[in-house]
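Page 47, continued from p. 46.
Same chain as before, 202 aa.
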Amino acid sequence: MDELLGKLQYPFVFVDSSHAFRTSNANIEKLTRSLLKKTPQKFWSLIEDIEKSGREDTLYYERIIQLQKQGVISSLITCEAINQRIIDGRTDVIRLFGTINSMCLNDKNLCKAETPDLVLWGENVHYKTYIRATDALLNASCIVADKTILSLQIGQLLLEHTTQHCPIYFLSDTKKGGNHTEYDLPPKEFIQQLASVHRAAD
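Result:
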């Protein structure tokens, strides 16, 4: 961790997957536009299960928001679309898969007949969101990424949009090659330790 902290250039762009992808939640693949139209009850039940499971990442996102406010992280690019803490955090967040309205989580009857502002399984990320994410990466002087993002096609495509001289640090197994360095460090532990260091420095 100390080695990584010594290499970081601040502020850096942080690329996050989501709780569902980090835990390989199979329900994500069931969330299709077809399911929403044909069986909205089942769709919202799956959303509720994912939202409940993802609450354990609330502190993780609170720390990211604080690090953004401190100028440690410049932009957050995330696949998280349900955790309300990151949705309501009011910092610079690029939400690749959109967001789900908090009213829908509280009252499913309001939304059963509506299409949420979400990119569902099998759909493409909205063009404007994709461009915003690529701009953030192209202009970054340093990128830290949850390696889980590479399990998604959108993650692989996005991380091709980096400059040759921009270091990318993946939070995973320790391997080195090119301008990519991987660390055996879970994203949540990295953010926790980074937040502790910058609290001590305040």
